[in-house]
Amino acid sequence: MNPGISKPSSVTRRQFLRDGARAAGLAGLGGLLGLVAERSTAKGTVWQIDPQKCVRCGNCALYCVLEQSAVKCVHAYALCGYCQLCTGYFEPDPNDLNTGAENCLCPTSAIKRTYIEDPYYEYTIDEQLCIGCAKCVEGCHRFGNGSLFLQVRHDRCLNCNECAIAKVCAGDAFRRVPADQPYLLKTDTF
Amino acid sequence: MNPAESILTRRRFLVGTARAAGLLAAGGSTVSWLRAASPGRDANPFALDVERLQHTDPKLIHYEQVARFQGCAPDPRRIAVGPDDRVYIAAANAVTILDCNGRLISEIACAAPVRCVAVAAEGTVYVGVKDHVETFDRTGQRLATWPSSGRRTWLTGLAAGEKDVFAADSGNRCVLRYDKAGKLLGRIAERNKDRHLPGLVVPSPYLDVKLAPDGLLRVNNTGRHRVEAYTVDGDLEFFWGRPSAGIEGFCGCCNPVGLALLPDGRHVTCEKGLPRVKVYSPKGVFESVVAGTETFYENAKTGALKTRSDGLVGGLDAAVDSQQRIYILDLVANDVRIMQRKA
Amino acid sequence: MALLWLLSAVASLAEQRFPPPDFEGGHQLPVTTTPPARALTLDYLDVGVLGLSLGLAIWLVYRRRSRKGLIVLSIFSLLYFGFWRHGCVCAIGSLQNVALALGDRSYALPLAVLAFFVLPLAVAIFAGRIFCAGVCPHGALQDLVLLKPLKVPPGLEAALSVLPFLYLGAGVLFAATGSAFIICEYDPFVPVFRLSGRALMVLSGAALLGLSIFVGRPYCRFLCPYGALLKLAAAVAKWRVRVTPDNCTQCRLCEASCPFGAMREPQARPGTQTHARDRRRLGWLLLLLPLLLAGGGWLGYRFSAPASRLHPTVSLADLLIRAQGSPPKIGALTPDDLALERARQAPQEILAAAAAIQRRFAIGGWIFGAWVGLVFGVKLISVSVHRPRTDYEPDSGDCFACARCFEYCPNELVRRGVIPATTLTAAAPEISGPPGLDRS
Ligand code: SF4
Ligand code: SF4
Ligand code: SF4
Ligand code: SF4
């Protein structure tokens, strides 16, 4: 440093102030840490839909940050009636009980209908195609057993810090759940 | 830039602030304009539209409401009207007994969920408690507790005849026939190729059984959208009904969910999904509407119901009193409507 | 694991549930699949990578004084935290999680997120904005595309540099009240990292990236709320970035080297006359400060009611009040209708919850407004105070420790052995540019 301009006394004073401020800053950060640390969890959290609160508003298909929503329809098979006339699969008044697209509810034909034995059929969701629009969920819920429901699928979800759908969910159904129990399935929420 | 210009002064800061505010305002308004132009929350392009099915042609409605009262216990399931025109409602873990104005007369408490109730002509009350039947006299004194008939038994409907009691077992997809002492006499309507019985398809616990004036049982085969008539020995005599969201058929995947019979043998049917109560002739020809979907706002609206472990997802039940008035129990709104034929 | 747990849960409930049909053919019910969430160890791996990168950056800035090393680290961070981790969760957003944890007792803050918040700040208190130098993916992205830096007029620069503090205040307000994570919602670069997103945000991300070619790190300097925190921490840092490895010869070669406007030139002590005038001004400004605080607080309080509508519960309560008396709708319901139906099932609850949130917003509004007043006041004061400075040195709060300026200093070049030591003593001021070095 150039001794001609420097003023040692002011430099040391500034140094002193700075040290004090640093100590204060550290103490503040430590205090904040102490405050929030007791409310923290070592586990991570992820977003999930409470199927009992979902009102099937359709926003799950529209608001996910992903091109194709990370929310998909899943099936609680044990609740399903294996109906021949599945109201999650067919339009409310189908012309015929066959797999023709004009009879089907799903906009992306993501539901597969498999014959099991007379008169039972099994319905499975092709998650590659499902966009999480909840139309089938509504059909199943209104007329049937409510065995179809929506879940955030964690093989796709980016786990946004704040889920973009949660903000607009009409049922206030999204919540953070522990990452090691990342699903709220209908079978175990009773 | 020459050094003097690069020195920050208060005046430069204030001028800069004004400019920054201008920039911000421009940016902010572009953003809000873009937001306004992006799709809003005011429509659901994937809505399942059943609105057109929710309106009933007024010409078809032959009944009018003469009374309406709230149920006295939560979680109602079935309704029956006794010989003295008292109203018996199976709700939660009890049967509540009301007069026809909805005033609570008494209550029969049980230890497990009560899922159905029937009253015999002489006044004995038969109560379907989860997987077995309990009987009470007209004062509510317990007479007997019959043993359960099996592991999957899930009673959802009861009918009391002169000599027998019939219990609809949704769990085993059959109707159990008991004598008045509680002895199991047989299983009716079970799938049986030799007797050409197709079997009951029961996706959800709404199997009902009623004894018709012609001496035959009426059972709602919900998964096949049919009402089937069996002899007490289990022969299928005839059946009627077809799936349709239209007014003359049964809507959804499993309907009708409740049956009642008028003294002349005409059927009263209750549906869920599109909640509606209709009257069919003894042969099963659609005659009239008692109450259409628009009557049951709470019940018809989407989002009202939660999936429950007992599999009930709303719906209606009906019973007929001595004056041929139809009592409709709304499982969602938990109220009873008394409907009378229009003059 | 999850499957087993699920199966046992199903089995234990099997008696109570209405049984599905008994298949004569013995068909077995499939089990609902549950693909697991990202493993926890990976979250802690992120924290580990963050810590290592911070350590490496400190070494690169203070020991190696290597811009090239920082570029390599920046590219790594951009790939790892940006494109691979999709920029989420990042230190910038984590401040909202901390605010939410402070405001909402029921929110469990994941430790990994807390680490993302604390580590860069702790480092900044000792070593300046090391995080910005090469670890933050947002900073790295802007830094790497900076090709033709233009100088922002100092007045505008100073005014815009207030914004991060305001954004910080707003971010904390909305997060602590549980309304929204606006910093995440309006993050311009996360859609770039994800290569998808809402059109509006993709557009603004692209625009900002375009701007970054000419204006050094616009998001960092004029928006980043975490940068505001880092700036405060770095202002008191123990180790500071210095252009010169030892003595400043006042050669002024580094004067225009900083593309981020962080370089401060030496300033003489003011003459006694100006000094006296400045003191008077300072006195007035100090008197003005409480007024700014109070006025800001009052304004903040006035605007807290409209601001609270950003909370979904408050806006729903609003809808509920407006819809009072209107008949229930039958037929196809919009999401808003459905939310209204939900509110109508428990109107008192919704109204009470909304009122509670609005009360918190009123308090938050006072605090936020006072904060805005404070920020303006302090900025005004700081532009009125002349601090004597002997060397060319970067402002430790504004400096991103990017190491660009080092190569402009002849002393540094001597240190590296690029030029012989004798050139210095000969005619330093005449050297017109750093020989043999590009300006990147
Ligand atoms: S109707 Fe919608 S939610 Fe259901 S399977 Fe199809 S895309 Fe998925
Ligand atoms: S957290 Fe993000 S990726 Fe996952 S469902 Fe919500 S918006 Fe989609
Ligand atoms: S946004 Fe909410 S209510 Fe709408 S479909 Fe998704 S989970 Fe259901
Ligand atoms: S100022 Fe913010 S965005 Fe920029 S590098 Fe620092 S933390 Fe990242």
List keywords for this structure.
heterotrimer, A: about 190 residues, alpha+beta, 2 domains, two-stranded antiparallel ribbon, 3 helices, C: about 450 residues, mainly alpha, two-stranded antiparallel sheet, globular, disordered N terminus, disordered C terminus, binds iron/sulfur cluster
% residues in beta strands of chain C: under 5%
- Terminus-to-terminus distance of chain A: 74 Å
How much of the residues of chain A is beta strand, in percent? 15-25%
Q: What Rg of chain A, in angstroms, do the CA atoms define?
A: 27 Å
Helical content class of chain C: 55-70%
- Briefly note the structural class of the backbone of chain A: alpha+beta
Bound ligands: iron/sulfur cluster
List the helices and strands and how they pair.
The complex is a heterotrimer of chains A (190), B (343) and C (440).
Chain A: H1 8-37, E1 40-41, E2 45-49, H2 59-63, E3 71-75, E4 111-117, E5 120-125, H3 135-143, E6 148-152, E7 174-178
Antiparallel strand pairs in A: 2-7, 3-6, 4-5
Chain B: H1 3-6, H2 10-37, E1 63-70, E2 76-81, E3 87-91, E4 94-98, E5 104-109, E6 114-119, E7 125-129, E8 132-136, E9 142-145, E10 155-160, E11 164-169, E12 174-179, E13 184-188, E14 209-211, E15 217-221, E16 226-230, E17 236-240, E18 258-261, E19 267-271, E20 276-280, E21 286-291, H3 297-300, E22 316-320, E23 326-330, E24 335-341
Antiparallel strand pairs in B: 1-24, 2-3, 3-4, 4-5, 6-7, 7-8, 8-9, 10-11, 11-12, 12-13, 14-15, 15-16, 16-17, 18-19, 19-20, 20-21, 22-23, 23-24
Chain C: H1 2-13, H2 40-64, H3 67-84, H4 91-103, E1 109-110, H5 111-127, H6 130-134, H7 137-145, H8 154-160, H9 163-176, H10 182-185, H11 190-194, H12 199-212, H13 218-222, H14 225-235, E2 263-264, H15 272-302, H16 304-308, H17 312-322, H18 335-345, H19 347-384, E3 393-394, H20 410-416, H21 422-427
Antiparallel strand pairs in C: 2-3
Helix pairs in contact in C: 2-3, 2-5, 3-7, 4-5, 4-9, 5-14, 9-14, 9-19, 15-19, 17-18, 17-19
Bound molecules: iron/sulfur cluster (4 copies).
